[in-house]
Every structure is written in C-alpha cells, then in structure tokens.
Amino acid sequence: MPSTGRISERIAAIAESATLAVDAKAKALKAAGRPVIGFGAGEPDFPTPAYIVDAAVEAARNPRFHRYSPAAGLPELKKAIAEKTLRDSGYAVDPAQVLVTNGGKQAVYEAFATLLNPGDEVLLPAPYWTTYPEAIRLAGGIPVEVFAGPEQGYMVTVEQLEAARTEKTKLLLFCSPSNPTGAVYPAEQVAAIGRWAAENGLWVVTDEIYEHLTYDSVEFTSIATAAPELGDKVVVLNGVAKTYAMTGWRVGWMIAAPDVIKAATNLQSHLSSNVANVSQMAALAAVSGPLTAVEEMKTAFDRRRRAMVAALNSIDGVECPMPQGAFYAYADVRGLLGREFPGVNGPARPQTSAELAALILETVEVAVVPGEAFGPSGYLRLSYALGDEDLAEGMSRLTEFLGRAS
C-alpha cells in the first residue's frame, strides 16, 4: 500500500543543517536592522584570493567552459588534486581516483551512498559535524556515536571505538582537524586508529578539509598515510572552501579506490553532472598555487582564537580547551545550565545548550550553535572566522551576559 504522506519518510526524517539555520537566522535579523553578531557559520571573512578570481574570470570568457564537461571533473583539475594530495599529505593517488564534487558536502553524501547498505553501522566520533549523521541515514546507514569530552581533548580512543564496534560496523568516519571542536589528533593516535580499523576490516572515510588550518606548530596527519595497512579501504574527502576562502564556489572532491570512484561518478552523473566549469578552473588555480593566502588567514585566526578562548574561560561555569585546528571553539557550558539568567521576558533557567543559545540570541543578539547540533547537549560552538571588531563586540556581550548567571 503506498504511503499517504506528501513528503517521503526518508527525506522528512532529515534534520535541517543547524549551523546554516543559525547563520540564516542571524543574517535575517541583521537584515532587519538588528545588531546581531554571528558566531554560527564556519566561513572565513576574507575574500577569495585575487589570482583565483582572475582564473575564474578568464575561464568564464572561454567557450570551452560554457559546455558540459566530464561528470567526474575536468582532467586538469583531477591531475592537480592528485599532485596536491601527494604534496600536502604524502599520499600518492592517480587522477582516476579523484571525483570532483559540488562542495565537500556532496563528497560526504556520495561516499556514504556508495559504501553503505541498509543497516550498516558507521562509527561517528562525537562531537561531529552536523551533516554526517544525516548523510549516513540518508544512505541507509546507522550512525553510532562515540563521544569524547573536553577531559580527553574531544578525541576518541581506540578502546572507545572497539567498545562501540559490532558485527554490523562497516565504516569509521574520521575528521582531524575537527569541526566542531578544533581538535587535531597527534600522529601516533591517527596511526593507532587506522591500524585498528584495518585489523577489523573497516573502511575509513577521512574528512581533511581543515588540513592547512593548524596552530602552535601542530601538524596535520592524514590517516591514509599514517596507516598504510588500510590499503584501498580509505576514502579521502577535501575541498577548497576553507583553505582558500572559497565557501561559495562549491568545489570539493573525493579520493578512493577506482571501483569506488567509478560507482560514485555514476551516481553524480545522474545527480548533478559536472561541477560548474568556472568554479573548477578557480579550484585549479587554488590547488596549483601557493599557500600564502591561508598562512595570512591563519595569522588572523590564531589571534582571534586566543582572544575567544581567553574570554570564554573567564566566564564562571564555562570551560573551553584551546583548539589546535580549524576555526572553532567548543565551549563546555554544562556549568551554566539550570542557573538563572535575565531574559527579555523575565528571568530564565535554560536546561539545555539549545535553550541557552536561544536565550543568548534573544537577549544580547549573539548567534552561537548549541551542542545538540553536534551530539550531546551542554556545549556551544563558536566560529572565530569573523572580523576582529565583531569578535570583540560579540565576546563582550557574551561574557557580560553569561557572567550574570546566578
């Protein structure tokens, strides 16, 4: 008997992206004239470097790029991504192992859709990026959260992963540097997790989009090179969005064994065909060019990171480890829950981080993302990828308001 619902159960079950929802609400309030400070979206406030924009302008004038191109990506871009991967990760791949996607999110979904069968379990270290569990479920998989709190630097252990593994476990999602916590796994821990996955016959999907955003001389380690035992059961996801301030250009990629890439390309050929050629040529200029732009951004991010974490840790009831990568601070606010705050409609006692985030936006017009978007309640994610003046003003409002808890 056919379903009588207007929306399919599969699609109706998907939750809205919490980070984009917070960002959209903040922008809507700003457009209405409200002085909202948004710590929600992970989006560099810098313009895309001029040489990348110039490459796009040149491509837009070339009739070759006004037509369809191969669904898997322009050959020259796939070659450049393979060369960039060897340069930055020491991981040697053939251009045929590269699929260019419409942003990193499409790469995430296509990886899960290609590898998972209904009922397959995916070990998902938490806190996690809000899109991962939705993409897993949409592909028929079952996300199994493995939580690591601030006391362990928001990094899961092999022992935790082993305790969560069952006969249905097929895949481990690994993300370092982490969104939302900024945690960067040390090389020896990356290798240990990779070896454990290989010993248990698991696939690893590794999201490396923040690879160039690390601080304090901390180095990024790719699980693909740290654990060669994984062989061809590793899928690397990446893109130009964060490194080159290109969030709106929508170019990501997936690197995997040839059979996986062939299957994912078949999916993409029906889903969206090729990524916009102008964006692909901009990405070609980015991955083939120097890393000067990201180094300049990192200087600003580092300054903002220190200012934000110092401000958060000055608040009674808040604990925030110093993030070593990406551009997020993940604050433990469990010590504030249940306490009384002044609200626009009288005193309020938020019991969850979602309620606290809503109260903060309503009362002092600062947008933050609650921990519920990334796993358990009791945390707030704040992005420091925004201007210094806005950051200072937002943190001033936040510290003053949260400091009034009783």
Protein architecture, described:
The chain contains 14 helices and 12 strands. By secondary structure, the chain is of the alpha/beta class. It is globular, with a radius of gyration of 21 Å. The protein starts with 8 loop residues before the first helix and ends with a helix. The model has no long low-confidence stretch (mean pLDDT 94).
Short description:
The chain has helices at residues 9-12, 18-31, 50-60, 75-89, 103-115, 131-138, 158-164, 187-199, 223-226, 258-271, 277-288, 292-313, 353-364, 388-402; strands spanning 37-38, 98-101, 121-126, 142-147, 169-175, 203-207, 234-239, 252-255, 328-332, 366-367, 369-370, 379-383. With 406 residues, the protein is of the alpha/beta class.
Q: Which secondary structure elements does this structure contain, and how are they paired or packed?
A:
Layout lengths: L8 H4 L5 H14 L5 E2 L11 H11 L14 H15 L8 E4 L1 H13 L5 E6 L4 H8 L3 E6 L10 H7 L4 E7 L11 H13 L3 E5 L15 H4 L7 E6 L12 E4 L2 H14 L5 H12 L3 H22 L14 E5 L20 H12 L1 E2 L1 E2 L8 E5 L4 H15 L4
Helix pairs in contact: 3-11, 4-11, 5-6, 5-10, 12-14
- Oligomeric state of the chains in view: single chain
- Strand share of the residues? 5-15%
* Helix and strand element order: HHEHHEHEHEHEHEHEEHHHEHEEEH
Helix content: 40-55%
> How big is the Rg?
21 Å
Major sheet characteristics: 7 strands, mixed
Query: In terms of structural class, how would the helical and strand content be classed?
Result: alpha/beta
Lateral arrangement of strands in the main beta sheet? 2-8-7-6-5-3-4
Number of helices: 14
